[in-house]
Write a structure and sequence with these properties.
mainly alpha, 2 helices, 41 residues
Length: 41
């Protein structure tokens, strides 16, 4: 019987890593635009 942890990382850890990467990417994209948005509004 194959163990699902045999390859080293489970699907939950892989999904958590992808979500963390996307969260970091989106925060890096919004930071340069945020001062412009604040001054207009």
């Amino acid at each position: 019987m194959k163990n699902k942890y045999q390859k080293g990382i489970s699907a939950n850890i892989l999904l958590l890593g992808i979500v963390s990467l996307l969260n970091d990417l989106s925060s890096e994209m919004i930071l340069p635009i945020l001062p412009l948005f604040i001054t207009i509004v």
